[in-house]
Design goal:
The chain has about 450 residues and is an alpha/beta fold. It folds into three domains: about 230 residues, Rossmann fold, CATH 3.40.50; about 110 residues, Glutaredoxin (3-Layer(aba) Sandwich), CATH 3.40.30; about 100 residues, Pdz3 Domain, CATH 2.30.42.10. Helices cover about 35% and strands about 25% of the residues. It contains 16 helices and 23 strands. Strands 3-2-1-4-7-8-9-10 form an eight-stranded mixed sheet, with helices on both faces. Strands 17, 18, 19, 20, 21 and 22 form a six-stranded antiparallel sheet that branches. Strand 1, helix 3 and strand 2 form a beta-alpha-beta unit. Helix 3 runs parallel beside helix 7 and helix 7 packs antiparallel against helix 8. The protein is globular.
Length: about 450
């Protein structure tokens, strides 16, 4: 049944799979119409659902302000009475083989939903929806303390729910939600993947100092997305044990936050690689619940380049083993000395405390995508790429080496800078203490800086 597939293979949950239901319905709820960002969230959600084939009149909205003019009879002011009326209207048209997506935005307290200044306990809120029993029900929440709501709503039900942050955390939806809905636009887009990408972007904003120190401290303590079913924390499905992956797939896996990943670098001509492959296969039952294990072809130029960019040294001998987590390399070794040595390598890697890991490099700037049409000094006539420096944090490498607000970073180590996310990832692929070369545009002049990266302080 489709229900079993969705629960057990959460990472493949897509808008296309939802579309397999007879009809697709959505309920969009905004608890706060005083802030433009929450109104925009509803507009983003509506546009994304329309791009995925939702009938405009199957989208119901509860908000004091709504930029969408689709089906005015489906637009309700935000209060408890109207919420009940909205749900009754949906119940009248919803069939058992239909799907229903519920999206909730706006401010949230740990135990209540607030509509028209009236607090509704989560238990009462859930009861209002208890009569809805579609084939698939997806709940998406991007408010503060989101997990408290998703946990209460999904308890003792078969709902699939996604929470933007955990039960004791605040978050800034303006840094998260637009990325989520944009990544979900179009058919065959995975809800789980869209959440992971949005969360990654959110953490990159945090790491780059775009948020207040308190917000950053809160957000950085989160452990990735929270995806709940039946009130139980679900992480993305483990990878197939010893599957062979490409360089592009390795990029995504490298950033997985929830599990360590053992990378086995092999070649078809390498005899010790075959012994390692055999022994690692024998350890699947013991370690598959703890780590992922993948293989990459050490003869591939793309794989070689990936290791040069992410380790600084490339692959010089085979077989080679790397244990990675959170976008960093925990430990590595070359050669193979038998099963006992392999087990010891895995155990030592799992036991290695975080403080022993190299610190990712940090520049100490706040940056944004370069808007060529609005940027002063005729930048568009000089370059067609780069990112703009908004702020220089005090006592940082950027300040020490004389970088200034308004600088446009064109290149990092002779590589064109084409986007915010890739630049941050490239900086963090270097360790604190390493030197990088930046090419910068300032007032029409191109300057070059050799900057020694620092370690990001905990208070930011």
């Amino acid at each position: 049944m489709l229900r079993t597939i969705i629960i057990t293979v959460l990472s493949f949950l897509s808008m296309n799979s939802i579309a397999q239901a007879s009809e697709q319905y959505a309920i969009l709820i905004n608890q706060d119409s005083e802030e433009e960002r929450h109104i925009n969230n509803l507009e983003l959600a509506t546009n994304t659902l329309l791009s995925n084939g939702y009938d405009p009149c199957n989208i119901y909205a509860l908000s004091d302000q709504n930029k969408s003019s689709n089906c005015p009879s489906n637009q309700f002011k935000a209060n408890k009475a109207n919420l009940k009326l909205l749900v009754e209207n949906v119940e009248n048209v919803l069939e058992e083989d239909d799907s229903l997506l519920i999206y909730i935005t706006g401010h949230n307290d740990p135990d209540v939903i607030t509509l028209a200044s009236k607090e509704i306990p989560h238990t009462s809120f859930k009861k209002i929806f208890s009569s809805l029993k579609p084939l698939d029900l997806i709940l998406i929440v991007d408010t503060c303390y989101a997990e408290t709501l998703t946990s209460n709503m999904t308890k003792a039900t078969n709902w699939i729910s996604f929470a933007g942050c955990s039960k004791d955390r605040e978050m800034s939806c303006s840094l998260f939600t637009p990325v989520f809905w944009q990544n979900l636009a179009g058919p065959n887009q995975s809800i789980n993947n869209a959440f992971e990408k949005a969360n990654l972007e959110y953490r990159q904003y945090v790491d780059n100092g775009e948020m207040t120190p308190n917000q950053a401290k809160v957000a950085m303590s989160q452990e990735g997305i929270v995806a709940l079913s039946n009130g139980t924390l679900i992480t993305p499905d483990p990878l197939e044990w010893q599957q062979t992956v490409s360089a592009s797939e390795l990029d995504d896996i490298f950033l997985r936050n929830h599990r360590p990943v053992l990378i086995d670098v092999y070649a078809s001509w390498c005899q010790p690689c075959k012994f390692l492959d055999r022994d690692l296969r024998g350890l699947q039952s013991e370690y598959h619940s703890t780590i992922d294990a993948i293989k990459v072809d050490g003869d591939s130029e793309a794989i070689q380049q990936w290791f040069i960019e992410n380790t600084g040294s490339g692959i010089n001998a085979l077989p080679a083993l790397f244990m990675v987590k959170n976008g960093g390399i925990i430990s590595s070794q070359v050669g193979y000395d038998g099963r006992e040595n392999l087990v010891q390598f895995i155990e030592d890697s799992l036991d290695k405390p975080i403080e022993d890991l190299p610190s990712p490099g940090w520049l100490g700037v706040s940056i944004q995508e370069l808007n060529l049409s609005k940027h002063p000094n005729g930048v568009a006539t000089i370059v067609d790429h780069g990112i703009e420096v908004l702020k220089i944090f005090p006592n940082t490498p950027a300040e020490a080496y004389g970088m200034l607000p308004g600088d446009v970073i064109l290149e990092l180590n002779n590589k064109q800078v084409t986007g915010l996310s890739s630049f941050i990832a490239d900086i963090k692929s270097h360790n604190a203490g390493e030197t990088v070369v930046l090419k910068i545009l300032r007032r029409g002049y191109v300057l070059e800086y050799a900057v020694q990266l620092g370690k990001r302080p905990n208070e930011l």
